[in-house]
Amino acid sequence: MVKDSLLQKEYELGFTYTRSTGPVVGKFLTGLKNRQIFGNRASDGRVIVPPMEYDPETFRPLNDFVQVSDAGVIESWCWVSKPRSSHPSAVPFAWAMIKLDGADISMIHHIVTNEQNRVVTGARVKALWIDQPVGFISDIRCFVLEED
Amino acid sequence: MGELAAVVGIGQTKYASRRGDVSIAGLVREAAQNALEDADLSFKDIDAVVIGKAPDMFEGIVMPEIYLTDALGANGKPMLRVHTAGSVGGSTALVAASHVQSGTFKRVLTVTFEKQSESNAMWALSTPQPFSVHLNAGAGGYFAPIIREYIRRSNAPSDIGIKVAVKDRLHGARNPLSHLNLPNISHQEVEDSMMLWDPIRFLEACPSSDGACAMIIANKDLVSESPKPPAWILGGAMRSEPTIYAGRDEVNPRAGRDCAKDVYAQAGISDPRRQFDCAEIYVPFSWYEPMWLENLGFADQGEGWRLTLDGATSLDEGGDIPWNCSGGVLSSNPIGASGMIRFAEAARQVRGDADQHQVKDARLALGHAYGGGAQFFSMWVVGANKP
């Protein structure tokens, strides 16, 4: 009874922030604006996409940028049959780890298709770009299955 | 204290209102790399990393230390985040030092940062709460009445704060890393600047800065592996108290007095003004110099402002106990790093490595940081002589 009489109130807290992307993440995002995908070469020779600022083994700055294809293969996936409002797709889709041609590390994005049975490890996909890219990861609207 | 430890490398970034050329990772990396070069070491020589910054809400990245491991060469090594509000730079250095003094690690990299240009620090400190009037006070609004009370108690002349503001900016003009570079600042210019929170004027307040500071702290056995003179850590202490409690003295917080007493006892200091050659003290608003002169025992109660007035704390006036030769928080304030800059600049002095703001023959120095509502304190004493 006492508990119900105690006041409580929801409130919202919000701030405006700025993000400086720096020379590596900035290079990747600027590439997207031009419908290009850049990774960089790590000390062990692997091409990392999206690029990393510092080598995970030697800790040196990674400056050797490599442009990779906007098409590649599915390494693994997770099918979402009932998308929620904050998902990137209104229709059923797959979260997927996609290894782009020329890359050695898979990148997480999502695949939209009405052929769920074709979403399998090893299937080929390609980026579907938005009409006017701005330098966000969402410049790639989604990946779609390549035709057989 | 356990094992003897010393600072063997110091690295700082240039401080500026906006470092848009680098990410947060790039910013901390710059300071860490400079510290490693100063110590003639590489990341593989480091056993553990201790990182600190002010509240996550400042940049809006929760637990940023997790994504900074690559930038700080910490993969596969212990990494610890410290957080004690504005004093965090000091307490991070002390945690790093204790990692070595405990004998657990031989050589620790410690880094602190803030990228205020990405943030909204002033209002992140003053959030509206349900059922409360939103004061929109910010840090200055909180400290202004406390300063007013100091002036009332001490009968200090009303322009002591202006004198500190000029003095620290003239010091800062000697330091190429300083955010503010105001070699021609005048008493009149400070007096004429906008009154922000009476009695604190615009030029009596610290700037908002981007920047990072790093140090390498080594066990005594490894000190000789780095080429430059070490700064021996002779004592370190932290104290805290609640923001509000019955009987609290906000002007002269007990936690600050107790912290000083502790660190002085460790380092054999009985007369700080005479024994120290210089000090780097956290003074984000000008009046905190005379207030801390008293809180830290450099002057008797009510007398701190006389040292400022007489030029005792000024390098340019040949004072006997220069405070904040680097320019202090009033010249650069990347909040999370500001305390560590104090600790690092104290170490630079006793290493004889402070260039244009060097105090001649400095052998013993105090580094100090405070945070929150002047409720968190951290201090260390560093010396040129191995104890």
Enter the CATH topology name of the domain at 5-121 and 208-225 in chain B: Peroxisomal Thiolase, Chain A, domain 1
**Integer-rounded radius of gyration of chain A:** 20 Å
Order of helices and strands of chain A: HHEEEEEEEE
> What is the mean pLDDT of chain B?
96
Overall 3D shape of chain A: globular
Structural class of chain B: alpha/beta
CATH domain class of the domain at 5-121 and 208-225 in chain B: Alpha Beta
What is the alpha-carbon Rg of chain B in Å?
Answer: 19 Å
Helix fraction of chain A, binned, reads 10-25%
- Portion of residues in beta strands of chain A equals 25-35%
Shape of chain B: globular
Unreliably modeled segments of chain B: none
Q: What percent of residues of chain B adopt helix (DSSP H or I)?
A: 25-40%
User: DSSP helix count of chain A?
Assistant: 2
Structure notes:
The complex is a heterodimer of chains A (148) and B (387). Chain A is mainly β and 148 residues long. Chain A has one domain (16-145). In chain A, 11% of the residues lie in helices and 32% in strands. Chain A has helices at 2-5, 22-33, and strands at residues 37-41, 47-48, 65-68, 71-80, 93-100, 107-112, 124-129, 140-145. In chain A, the strands form 2 sheets. Chain A has a 5-stranded antiparallel beta sheet with strand order 6-5-4-7-8, with no helix packed on it. Chain A starts with a helix and ends with a strand. The mean pLDDT of chain A is 94. Chain B is an alpha/beta fold. Chain B has a domain at 5-121 and 208-225: Peroxisomal Thiolase, Chain A, domain 1, CATH 3.40.47. Chain B is 32% helix and 18% strand. Chain B has 12 helices and 11 strands. Chain B has helices at residues 24-38, 88-101, 121-124, 138-154, 160-172, 187-192, 254-267, 272-275, 288-295, 304-310, 328-331, 335-350, and strands at residues 5-12, 48-52, 79-82, 107-115, 195-197, 200-201, 210-219, 231-240, 278-280, 364-371, 376-383. In chain B, the strands form 2 sheets. Chain B has a 9-stranded mixed beta sheet with strand order 3-2-4-7-1-8-11-10-9. In chain B, strand 10 (364-371) and strand 11 (376-383) form a beta hairpin. Chain B is globular. Chain A binds chain B through residues 7-11, 13, 15-26, 52-57, 59, 61, and chain B through 19-26, 29, 43, 57, 59-60, 70-73, 75, 115, 117-120, 123-124, 127-131.
